[in-house]
Design brief:
mainly alpha; 14 helices
Length: 313
């Protein structure tokens, strides 16, 4: 049965492997370059809190981040590979329903229930495997950037942990559910990938609701506890009660380098109002968000199975 499934979807599987190979090639080449620069510049000593790092770290880190800023911005696009892979995994089954070739399998030794169970199990296994490869590649690629800035902010968060598996499974399940109901491959691909895109766009907002962010009101220029490598959602200067300062920070607090004077901020009793998710919540947020999308995926798969058993079989 597994060999038959591979043969039926060989075109999609070839495209899937090509896509995975292309992503791997780009990540390995660029990641190796980032790692070599990271090591050559001695940035391993700059991965701790700025208070305990060597004085030269500020310049080294800024130079490294500016050098690879455009490359880091590609992370969300690499993350989109999970959706494309989910579409490619589900497309052969939808195409079979669209063209009616499933009837041939049902006339052989396979029962509709066994055929459906096998196809869905292979779909889930394929999604897990593809997501796991993306996780391994993304985590290795982002290691130098994560060491300096953490991995809880949105650009890093979606490419690591367990979320690529959840995203791949969601895309595959959405394509299958739409395709099962409509029996139109084109509509299934467009609708399923649309569900995936909406989920990805809403995920940062959902993430903020899973665990209430930390609201910190700290005398400037001191940073709040837990801000190191955190996902800063919003920040600004206020008075001691959290109210915005009329006119912003006094102009006298800016020195000749267009940077703020710490002593001036203290003298004017300026506070920092920062909303953030600490880096320590990475796995808690990963588990909660992945759980939501996996539950949604299983619901879509259950809908597809019910529809096939009740309306098609």
């Amino acid at each position: 049965m597994s060999w038959v499934v591979w043969r039926q979807g060989r075109s999609e599987n070839v495209v899937l492997l090509a896509l995975l190979g292309a992503v791997a090639l780009v990540l390995v080449l660029t990641g190796a370059h980032m790692r070599s620069v990271f090591t050559a510049n001695g940035l391993a000593a700059c991965t701790g809190d700025s208070a305990t790092s060597p004085p030269s770290c500020s310049i080294l880190v800024q130079g490294f981040e500016s050098r690879f800023d455009s490359l880091s911005a590609l992370a969300p696009w690499f993350g989109m590979a999970s959706g494309l892979m989910g579409v490619l995994l589900a497309a052969p089954l939808v195409l079979e329903l669209d063209q009616g070739t499933y009837r041939l399998a049902w006339t052989q030794s396979l029962t509709p229930r066994r055929w459906l169970t096998t196809r869905i199990v292979l779909l889930v296994i394929g999604s897990i495997a593809c997501g796991a490869v993306l996780i391994a590649l993304g985590t290795w690629w982002r290691h130098p950037l994560d060491a300096l800035a953490g991995r809880v902010s949105p650009d890093q968060f979606d490419l690591e942990g367990v979320l690529p598996i959840a995203y791949t499974l969601l895309a595959a399940a959405a394509v299958l559910a739409v395709g099962t109901v409509t029996r139109r491959t084109g509509l299934a691909v467009a609708g399923g990938f649309g569900v995936y895109l909406v989920a990805r766009l809403l995920s940062p907002t959902i993430r903020q609701q899973l665990i209430a962010p930390v609201h910190s009101l700290t005398p400037a220029p001191h940073a709040p506890v837990g801000i190191f490598k955190a996902w800063v959602i919003s920040q600004g200067f206020t008075d001691a009660h959290g109210h915005s300062i009329p006119g912003g920070v006094p102009n006298s607090c800016f020195n000749g380098q267009n940077s703020l004077s710490d002593s001036c901020l203290v003298n004017h009793h300026v506070f920092q109002n920062i909303v953030y998710e600490p880096a320590s919540r990475f796995w808690t947020l990963q588990g909660a968000e992945a759980g939501i999308f996996i539950a949604l995926s299983l619901a879509l798969l259950a809908l597809a199975a019910w529809w096939i058993n009740r309306r098609i079989a």
